[in-house]
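ok, trying the design again with the full structure, not the truncated one.
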């Protein structure tokens, strides 16, 4: 899951539109390569662990 978090941060740095700590499902699923299931996994992981920057 750490890789997932790092990928999400990398995408947000490249595209600059999504904050990994506050994005909702719609915003996360709008990322290239991230669908609804991946967005749900990110939100679930974030609730359990909270990303640290």
């Amino acid at each position: 899951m750490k890789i997932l978090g790092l990928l999400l941060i990398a995408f947000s740095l490249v595209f600059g539109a999504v904050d990994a700590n506050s994005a909702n499902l719609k915003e996360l699923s709008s990322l290239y390569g991230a669908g609804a299931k991946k967005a749900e996994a990110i939100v679930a992981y974030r609730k359990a662990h909270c990303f640290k920057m």
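Keeping the full-length input from now on. The mean pLDDT is 78.
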